[in-house]
Structure formats: structure tokens, C-alpha cells
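Side project, low priority. Logging it here so it doesn't get lost.
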Amino acid sequence: MDNKLSPEEIEELKERHRACRDRRSADRIKAVILLDRGFSYEEAAKALLLDDSTVRDWESQFDEDGLEALLVDGFSGGKARLTAEQESLLSGHVEEGCFGRVADLLPWVKDELGTEYSVDGLTEALHRLGFVYKEAKKMPPAKLEEQVGFAEEYETLKACKDGNDRIWFGDAVHPSHDTKTSGVWVKKGTEKELPASSGRKRVTLNGAYCPETAEAVICEEETADSEALVRLLGRLEQWQTEGIIWLVLDNARHHRSKLVAEWLALHQRVRILYLPPYSPNLNPIERLWLLLHRKALYNQYFRTFAEFRAAVQAFFENMSERYSAELASLVNDHFELMGN
């Protein structure tokens, strides 16, 4: 502090602190009082769980503009320190990069925009510009052009197929016999505990799902291979007795094997349409597997593998009736395209 505060000024600060409803404004008042009492910047920052550059900024603002300006800044964020053009440059830089810490942005802001910020100050600026902090999302290395091409081909097929034709989406899943947990509501300060299953066995399902009718044909297998796919194709042929059976599959090697090609040559009513590489987002059955985990497996303890297997099988019994709303909203062919 440039000058020690008078007892009257200290009392005014205390009164304003007692009446203060905003935590950040209260911290600003406490910083001023601590510095007046002889605390160093580092000691005051440690006491307030802040960084010392923030405390320095607050002291400077208090010395230059007084208490009212300090508190107005605390409520409203203060006058922007960047011009509109500089804010646009900052926004573009953040959007183009991947910054996990605000501190990593400080050198760029100083060098490129000529402005020094504290971590808290720049955090406020980022919030004001519409940025939030959240985990980055992994994206498959798909090509957008290929996904667009598939979506157009699919819509054309839907529009041109005959009434008895059906389009199915196929895939395999391997749920394992262990306790799978997800978020649940609990009393604050408590935990929801579930026994942990130590089983390593898993169920392998090879399936096909038709979004148009909400039907699923599921085969339990030892492994997902060419022979398992041929058995699934045979089940589909028995299930859908009329019309062409279109099965959409990914590009797994066994989906294009000689055995599968030979089977298809003898069964002209069954045809395969392949997804672009790295495109699980275009396969609704992936979301059927997610629904299986949500409804039957998450936050459930299965003492034996037989109980676990029975729960998996029970999910598919009368599935289209029990989960009609979820199937319509989640397991549909409203594709969200992605890629570069």
C-alpha cells in the first residue's frame, strides 16, 4: 500500500465487507486490509487462495481509483482491457489451439496483444467472450466427405426401396461381467457403494437393428468372426421373410471375408452396405449397445456370470415395447456427421 489506511478507512472497509454478498468483491476488500496490515503479496494471495499478481492488480486499482471502482469491477468485471479487435484475435487463438491452463495463454496475450493479465483476470475475459472449461472430445479420424456421401446414399436407398425391404445396422459388442458404475443421486457428503464383481468372463453378441421397425436380431457367439456373421445373416433371412435385406456394417476384415462373399452369392436377397472408415456415429446399433448398458448393466451387481448373462438377455425381451421412447430418440438414423 502506498499509505497506511486510517482507522476510519479500515472501519469503512469492514462495514462494506459485512454487507458484501459477492464473494469476489469480498476477497478484494480482504486483500486491501491484509496488505495494509503488512502482509506481503504472496502471503495475502496464499490466505485468499489466489495468485499474487491478482492481489497486486487489486491493490493498484484501489490506490488509483478508490474502493468504489474496485468493487464495481468485482460485480461487473470492470472495463474491458482489450479492444474489440484484440478480443477477436484472442477468441480465434483459443479456438484454434488446445489450452488446458489459462496460465499458458498469458505469454501470448502479453506478446501479441500487449496486455498483461493475471490468471483470474484472463479467466474472466474468456468467460466474457463465451468460453467455458470442459474436457476435450475425442473424434475419430473420419473424412467428412465420405460421411456425407454415405448419408446421401442411405437417404436415396430409403426413398427408393420397396415396402417389404428393410435396412439393418450390424455390429458386435462384448459386455464383461464386472460392476459398471455411473453417476447417481446421493446425499451430499455420502457415497453410493456397490459390490465389485471380479469376473472376467464376457458375453459376445453379434446383432442387427432396424431403426424403421425398432426390431433387433441378436446372436450370442463365442467370438465375432466370419462364421458368426454368416449365422447372423441366416437369422436375418429367417426373421425377414420378404423383401431385400440391407445390412450396414463397418469395415472389419471378417465382414469382407471370402466366406461371407460366398454366402452372399448364394443368397441374393441379402446385401451389405459398408460404412466409411472410422464412422461409428453412422451406426445406430452402437447406441443400442449404450442403451443396453444403461438399462441393464450400469450400477448393478451380479453375483454370478449366469445372473449377468440373464440380465443381458432379458434386455432384448419385448425391447421395442419397453423402451420405445428411448429407441426412438436415441437409436435412430438421424446421423450427426463428423470428420475433417
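Brief comment: The chain has 15 helices and five strands.
Revisit when time allows.
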